[in-house]
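Annual report, structural modelling task.

Input specification for the guanosine-5',3'-tetraphosphate complex:
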Amino acid sequence: MPDSLKQNVQWFPGHMAKTRRQIKEFLPQVDAVVEVLDARVPESSRNPELSELIGNKPRIVLLNKCDMADTVATQRWIAHFKKESAAVLPVDCKSGKGLNHFIPLMKEVLQPVIQKNIERGMGGKTIRLMVVGIPNTGKSSFINKMSKRNRAAVADKAGVTRQSRWFVIGNGIELLDTPGVLWPKFDDPKVGDKLAFIGSVKDTVFDIETLAVRLLEVMQKDYADRLMERYKISDFEDDMPWELLERIAKKRGMIQRGGVPDTERAAVMLLDEYRGGKLGKITLDSLEQENG
Ligand code: G4P
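The model returned the following structure:
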C-alpha cells in the first residue's frame, strides 16, 4: 500500500475543546459517568482523554451494539474491563437488551454515595449521570430507551453536536446528554481506520476504496470465513486485499464498460454490508493483539 494511503488523520480539535469544557462544567453536578463504547471496537471507541477528565468520578462502561460484536470477544473485553475495576455492562440499545441491568448496576456502583445521602437525611436525592462517548456509539439510543420518551433525537450523522440536556429516567435518576467526545487527532492510524469502518468518522474523510481495502485486509486475517460465506469466494489467502475487492465486485456483477471491475461500487457495498451487520458479528479490537 502506498505511504500516501497510510496518512494520519487530523480531526476536529475545535469539537474536542468544546466537549472538554462541557465535561469540566457539568462534572461537579453528576454522581457518575456512563461511558458508551462500541463493542465492535471497545478500545478504539474509547477517548484516551476521558480518564484524566473525569478523575476518580465513578464510571460505568456500556459495551453497546453487542448484537453486532463477536460474542466471544465481548466476553473477553468484559473480563478485561472488570480486571481494571470498571463496572461494565454489555447492551444493545437498539432492542434494549441488557438495559434492565443498568439501574441495579448503577446503584451498586453508587452505593457509597447513596448511603451518604441517606445518612444526611437526603435519601431521595436525585442521582445524576453524565453520558459520554464518541459519535455514533449509541448515546442517544441509550437515553431514548432509558427515558422511554423518545425526546433525544437519534442522529444518523457522525459529529453532530447538540445542546446538553437532562433526561429523567425514573427512580430519581437523571441522565445528562452531552455532545460526542471526539479525538483531537488519532495517534494510531489503525484507530482512524476502525472508526471509519464502523461509520463513526465520515466517509468523506477517507477514500472509500482505500477504506474497503483496509477492511478486507483485517477481515482476511481474522474473519476470512465470513468473506467466503457472504461473497462465495475461496482460495484468497494469497490475494492482495485490492484483488479481493475486484473479485467481490465481479461476483456481484459490478463491472464497468470494458469488463473492468467497479471497485468503487463494491467498496460502498462492502462497507454498507459490514455496517449493516450482514457480514456477521465482528469485533475489530482484539485483546490478544493489543496485549501481545
Ligand atoms: P450517538 O448518540 O452516540 O451519536 O448514537 P445514536 O444513538 O445516534 O446511534 C447511532 C446509530 O447506531 C443509530 O443508527 C442507532 O440506531 C444505532 N444503534 C445504537 N445502539 C445500537 C445497538 O445496540 N445495536 C445496533 N445494531 N445499532 C445501534 P442509525 O442508522 O443512525 O439510525 P436508525 O437505524 O436508528 O434509523
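Residues 64-65, 67-68, 92-94, 133, 135-141, 154-156, 180 surround guanosine-5',3'-tetraphosphate (CB under 6 Å).
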